[in-house]
Every structure is written in structure tokens, then in C-alpha cells.
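Hello,

Our lab assistant flagged a job as stuck in the queue for most of the afternoon. It eventually completed. Since we weren't sure the result was trustworthy after the delay, we are filing this so someone can double-check. Below is the sequence as submitted and the structure that was eventually returned. Let us know if re-running is recommended.
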Amino acid sequence: MKNLRDVWSSRFMHYIGEVQKYMQFIFTGHIAIVLVFLIGAGGYQYSEWLKVVQTDFPAEIIIALIVGILLAFSRPTTLLREPDQVYLLPLESKISQYFNKALAWTYWSQVWIVAIVYIVCIPLLKAVTELTTIDIWTVFLLVIVLKYISVQGEFNYRYSERGNMVWVDRLIRAIVFAAAIYLGLHAQLLLAVVVAVISVIYIIVFRKKSTGEPVPYEHFVKLEQNRMMSFYRFANYFTDVPHLHGSIRRRSWMDWLYKFVPYGKGNAQKYLVFRTFVRTDDHFYLWLRLTAISAIIAAFVDIPVVTWIAAGALSFATTIQLKQALLSSGEFRMDMLYPLPDNARPLAVKQVVRLAMITQAIIVGLCAMTQPMFYITVIVVLVISELTSKVSK
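-- returned structure --
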């Protein structure tokens, strides 16, 4: 039997390889361009807002709540598998070696998120508060420490309580962490440290409670499976994940949409493709998510050029992925038994994709109505979509 540290290291390398394999399809050129423009536009609007923000703006409480909630979500990455329930039992007395490595990775993989959020808020703190630079960066160090406490706290709670009522634990930690940060932002650092010590005592209670208890393999294995499945579902929006099969839902509340494609002999393929699009989670949520992102950008980004570029890039991404998803159905279908033309399904897919993109263009256009020349956004979405549909295979 390998050393448990070696077991973790080998699994970690496999995990990193698996993530990198799909990340290259997620962060493609057009996504990078969209992110650059969004970050630039967001930074510009943020800086302009800071010039006019009122000094009575409740920055401390808002930042404390946001950072406190982010700190509370510290789901451990254990990389445990189902066979571990049997094969790791003989080494359960040394399992802390494995979990120490797991929690170290959990901390370093999550702390940067809350750190970036706090750093982004620093200009706001300087604009509306009288905090010194030392005070602000002292609170930053407090946030870093609280993240470590949160990772240890969630793990020990899950261990002792077998994963039951995790939301209660997170709520308690969110309140305690928000209180500590709020006190720190009001230059009450001593009180903030006292609250942080209370959170440490909270962790110690559950750590002692878990002493001598068997490892809750079932909970941690299920947690790991759900975490990886969430990643695979996200990656499946950008590329095909072979072992992932999207679920099918009736969505009876959307039955009225089928009136746009009347049931009939001439519309057999179009009707089938349209129902596939509406009922398949992967296809429907792909369109819904990208449409929502485009609509949010159009509604809140006041720079028309950025809106046009983002809407065009997301129109391209929606069209090409939706078209490939609807055409890639390789399983047997009853319509294969009937003498339909060879181009019947590709033509039906093209028509359904066009209908979906017209709907996206209308939604994005309505969200961009406060901008000058908002109709250009609608034209960009439709033109990019049509060109993508014609050029792509």
C-alpha cells in the first residue's frame, strides 16, 4: 500500500490533467476576447462610479456581507473515490495525512477568489471611509486567515455531522465572518480578532466531536462526484464530454412553444429537433445561459462597442455549439425508418437554431434599449449567427 501522501499526489495529478483537458476548450480565443472587454468595461465603469459615489454609501456592511458569504462556502476537495470505502479502511488511523494534503489544496484553490473580491473593493473603501492603508491591508490579512479557518471548519463539520444540515453551519460561519470583517473595517481590530477566536473555538468543538468517529466516506465520495459532475456539465457547454449524458425534462410549462412548429408530415424533423432542444437540459440551458450573459452585459455595460463585441462573440458561441449539439445525435431514432431526404435533419437544425437566435437577439435588444443605437446589438447577433450557421459544418 502506498503512503497516503503519495496517493493524494497521484490523484491530484490525474485531477489536474482532467481539468486541463477540458479547460483548453472552455477558454478559447473568443471567450478570452469577451473576458478582456468585460473586465476593461467593468473596470472603467467602476472607476467612473467611484468619482461620484456618496461618502455615506454603506461600503463596510456590503463588503462584509459579500466577503463573509464567500468565506463561508469552503467545500473540501478530497478526491475520494468509491473504492476508498474498502481499500483505505486499513489505513484509517493515518487518514489525516491524506486530508491534510486535501485541505491544503482546498485552501489555496479557493483563497484567491475572496482575495480578489476584497482587493477590488479597496478603492471603494478609500473613497468612502477614513481607513488608512495599514488598516485596509490588516483586514486583508484577517480575510486570508478567516478563509483558512473556514476551510477547516467546514471539513470538521462535515466529518462530525456526516454532511447533514451543512447550510446551517455555513450560515453561522457567514454571520461570524461578516461580523469580524465589519468590525475590522471600523478599525475595531481587537474586537475582530475576538470574533475570529470565537470561530476557532467553533471549529475545535466539531473537531473534538469527530475524534474517534469513522470517516464518512459516503458523504465525501458523493460530494466529490457532485463537484466533478458540475465541472463536466459546465465543460459540456463548450465541448463534448463522452461520459456525460444530459437529462431530459418534460417542461410542460413550455408546451405552448410547439405551436410555432405545427405538427405535420412536412415538419416531422423540425418538430423533433425543436422538442429535442426544449427538453434536453444540455441544449436548453446552453442557450439560456449564454443568452442571459449577453442580456446582462447589454443591460449594465454602457459602452456600446463593448456590448456589440460581447453580443457578437456570445452569438457565435451559442450558434456553433447549439448547431453541433443538435446535429451530433448519433443514437437510433424512429425517423430513420422513414424515407426522408438526407438533408431533412440539417435543414431542421438550421431552422431551429435560427429561431433560437432570433429570440436571443430580441431579448438582448430589449435589455440594450437604454443605450444609443441599441438596434445595432440586434443586428450584430443576427448577422453573426447567420454567418456562423452558414460557414460552420
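-- support follow-up --
The delay was a queue issue, not a problem with the job. The result is valid. Residues 95-128 form the longest helix (34 residues). The two ends are 51 Å apart (CA to CA).
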